[in-house]
Amino acid sequence: MPAINYETLNSATDVTTTRTLLNEAIPLTGTIVSGTYTEGVSPGFTSATNVKNYSHGMFQSVYDYPYLSSSANHIFDLTVGYTATSGMSSSASEQNSKKLNMYNVMAQTLLGYDVSGAIETFESDLDLTDDNAQMKEVFFVDFSRLLTKDQIKKGSFSISLITGSTDLGPNLRGLTTLPITTLTDLSASDDGGTNPNVNGGEYGLLYNSPYTASAVGAVFYQAGVAVITASVFCTASQVDGIPKNAHFTRNNGNIYGLTGSWTSLPISSSCDEIRRRIANLSFNNTTELNSTIYFCRASSNKFNYSSNPTYTTGSKLRVKSVATDTPVSYITTVGLYNSNNELLAIAKLSEPLKKDPTNEITLRVRLDY
User: What Å distances lie between residue 80 and 99, 262, 304, CA to CA?
Assistant: First the structure.
């Protein structure tokens, strides 16, 4: 039913906006990540049907269910990369150009360019201007927007990795006695410990235990991407005389603790090795709920008559039996209109509210988006 009388809302006193952050815990167990769903392949050659590789060979996707199923949800993409200045970069290395491209495209997207126009390099600190502790060999965990929503909550990210030189084979399920290193963004919070001045939004550093002197990676909260050093799999406190967390290190192309070499293996095989070492992964996502609140005020001398055509019969009000009685109406619905009196939104009350000249009513209408 079209409105007959309109009340103009004052943007200064009748309209306000709010922002609410909703968080949801996202736990990802190693059994899902390492390949829960298999199809009867002999041990040592397990094919995980919830892990999808592509013909381009630049990354692999992990699902929570066999990816050919309509019930499958994409969890994250996994890939590896290194810089042109890395000791791994060589024309003889397997998929060398693709590994360089993966590093560059992620760095370009998440960090941007320096003052000279060169692509920034990932570093294990928050200062990108000093080029210290450069992370030249990394692996990327790019989470699905389905999981991260608007962003990862600062200070909530945790990933546990099985370290050491043990050959895990195709699956880590049940191997709980192996050494585990847990990386967290403990230093990050809404109040600090992050760098907001990059293309990918804010990022916080990932620290491990028991070696906490330097960061071993970073998590980009709005982009939903974790960047982790290859040297995190090293079991010694030092590598070639350099503290293991001071730099992203390598040993003749071999990633410490992994059975293969990044120089001789394709990206998909390197991803398999890393993925099978993810024992646990968790974070809280964040959904940003923006609201506009309208205070719809019905003063004592307004809205005391209904716009319903059945409110009157002839020239008399149906709700009045005595002419001297005050008019009365019942408010059931609030309509929000634009400047052209076009209906934009409708709010229904849980129960009718009695309105007459003896009272005033303020209705609070909230639109979430």
Answer: 6, 9, 69
